[in-house]
């Protein structure tokens, strides 16, 4: 397939490009578009054949459900069977934005979207290009992250080209994304409500609205996480990721290099403070926020540099740090 590539100015997007992309969606094709979290690989959520193409293009396991994206609260009723008062409260506080909500699915939505589950996740992105594209399409857009399954989510169009060039109809380039991490997925159908995936909105922020929300990401049901996507190895660069505590960091890195007969050029470090007396490449971010924005990009860059091992200083599990830590733990698993 010949993939069209189109750059847009996100503050003033070229409408003819977005109309063309919306036509592709309406005709059952695949459109990669920017959102405020990561790039999405979109298709008509109400067209089974179109959604099937998503699974093929990104080699996604068929038991992993997909988020439906809307650009207007009114569109919810085409996807979900019930909107509870708690749904409404979350929507009022977090939409549009990087929070995805779980609902009971309407029977008319093709089962492939939710991988056969009775529930469906819905997200109302705040990104102007994503919103305009959904609006012009006039239908909800099913969209996972626009990476090949298992690879880090794409935070710029170059990442998408690496993974999906020739596998999709069009890639809309809106520059680097704002958050650099995926949305937070919240299940309020359960009591107590729980987070299915930590993401761009922290649990602390959600607690202000839903005081009894818990982190459900480590809960197991028949030995499997409650959200299907969490069971796969994810976010992974080709290099081995090694998570280390701050204590004795330099010593532990030097020991590892020695024991594994690794050349200094084959290793890289991701941390919040530069380490003296360590001569491997260092990627230092000024705070956890900066690290979260650039983490996936750093993983991909290190793959291009043929790094064999990436040491990461373990971030504290609070605020956005929790989402970063979850991804690092998956990447190092
Ligand atoms: O920020 C984001 O959420 C991005 C952008 C493109 O919107 N999308 C994204 O989609 O990250 P994806 O498919 O890469 O991740 C969706 C996650 C998966 O872990 C999936 O298993 C979970 O949400 N999920 C989707 N529908 C679900 C459902 N009905 N029940 C439980 N988990 C669900
Ligand atoms: Mg994904």
Describe this structure in words.
- Belongs to the SUA5 family.
- The chain is α/β, with parallel strands linked by helices and 333 residues long.
- It contains nine helices and 17 strands.
- The strands form three sheets. The chain has an eleven-stranded mixed sheet, with helices on both faces. It has a four-stranded parallel sheet with strand order 14-17-15-16, sandwiched between helices.
- The longest helix is centred in the last third of the chain and has 17 residues.
- The chain is globular.
- The protein binds threonylcarbamoyladenylate and magnesium ion.
- The site of threonylcarbamoyladenylate has 29 residues, from strand 5, strand 6 and strand 10.
Task: Report the bound ligands by name, code or SMILES.
Answer: threonylcarbamoyladenylate, magnesium ion
At CATH's second level, what is the architecture of the largest domain? Answer: Alpha-Beta Complex
Strand order of the largest sheet: 1-8-2-3-7-4-6-5-9-10-11
DSSP helical segment count: 9
Radius of gyration: 20 Å
- Terminal CA distance reads 34 Å
Structural class: alpha/beta
What is the highest CATH level, the class of the largest domain?
A: Alpha Beta
Total E-strand runs: 17
Low-confidence stretches: none
Domain count, please report it.
2
């Amino acid at each position: 397939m010949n993939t069209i590539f189109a750059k847009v100015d996100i503050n003033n997007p070229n409408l003819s490009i977005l109309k063309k992309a919306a036509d592709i969606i309406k005709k059952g094709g695949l459109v990669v578009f920017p959102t405020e979290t990561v790039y999405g690989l979109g298709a008509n959520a109400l067209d089974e054949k179109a959604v099937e193409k998503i699974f093929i293009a990104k080699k996604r396991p068929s038991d992993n459900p997909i988020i439906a994206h809307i650009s207007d609260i009114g569109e919810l009723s085409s996807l979900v069977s019930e909107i509870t008062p708690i749904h409404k409260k979350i929507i009022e506080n977090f939409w549009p934005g990087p929070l995805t909500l779980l609902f009971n699915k309407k029977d008319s939505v093709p089962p492939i979207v939710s991988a056969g589950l009775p529930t469906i996740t819905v997200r109302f992105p705040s990104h102007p290009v994503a919103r305009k594209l959904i609006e012009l399409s006039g239908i909800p857009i099913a969209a996972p992250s626009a990476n090949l399954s298992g690879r880090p989510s794409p935070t710029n169009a170059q990442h998408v080209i690496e993974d999906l060039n020739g596998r999709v109809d069009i890639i809309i380039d809106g520059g680097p994304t704002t958050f650099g991490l995926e949305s937070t997925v919240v299940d309020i159908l359960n009591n107590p409500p729980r987070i299915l995936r930590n993401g761009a909105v922290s649990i602390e922020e959600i607690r202000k609205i839903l005081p009894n929300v818990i982190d459900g990401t480590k809960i197991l049901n028949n030995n499997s996480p409650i959200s299907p996507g969490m069971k796969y190895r994810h976010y992974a660069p080709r290099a081995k990721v090694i998570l280390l505590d701050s204590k004795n960091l330099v010593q532990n890195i030097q020991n590892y290099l020695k024991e594994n007969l690794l050349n200094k050029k084959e290793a890289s470090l991701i941390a919040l403070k530069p380490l003296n007396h360590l001569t491997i490449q260092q990627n230092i971010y000024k705070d956890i926020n900066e690290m979260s924005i650039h983490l996936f990009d750093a993983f991909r860059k290190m793959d291009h540099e043929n790094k064999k091992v990436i040491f990461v200083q373990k971030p504290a599990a609070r605020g956005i740090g929790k989402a970063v830590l979850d991804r690092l733990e998956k990447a190092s698993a």
